[in-house]
Structure prediction request, 150 residues.
Amino acid sequence: MRKQLTSNDILINNGIDKIYIDLFFKLVDQSLEGSLNSKSQHEKFLSLCSKYPNSQRKIFSKIVDILYRNIIFDNDEFDKLHVENGGIMDDADDGFYQDFGCWVIFRGQQILDKFLKNGSEYLIDYIKSLNISDRELTYENFHYGIDNED
Prediction:
């Protein structure tokens, strides 16, 4: 039986040091505190990241890219979240994969790992429990601005 990969496994297998993984997800968790509003979370995340040198922010950006490539893009379980495949999201490719995909990443490591373990049904139930708009789920800026120059 093949071991179920976690976000840590994926990132470590792609050369990211655990210390940066932990720090990235700590910042994500802090950015989530007190708000379900994606724009507010993004602004708070960027503010938190700004306290670190650009060399570290580039690693955070790389973390998002690796997670996106390995968990979101070309993943049958993620594809099941689209309404055409029985899911709940009805958006075009960029809105679905890039924007919604990054929203999933920025829900934090616990949510991401539960999705990896339990699949699309878990994420559908999680999203329904939040009772938030599609606009929040497809906020397009999560992947922008992390590694701005100092």
Summary: The chain has one domain: 7-137.
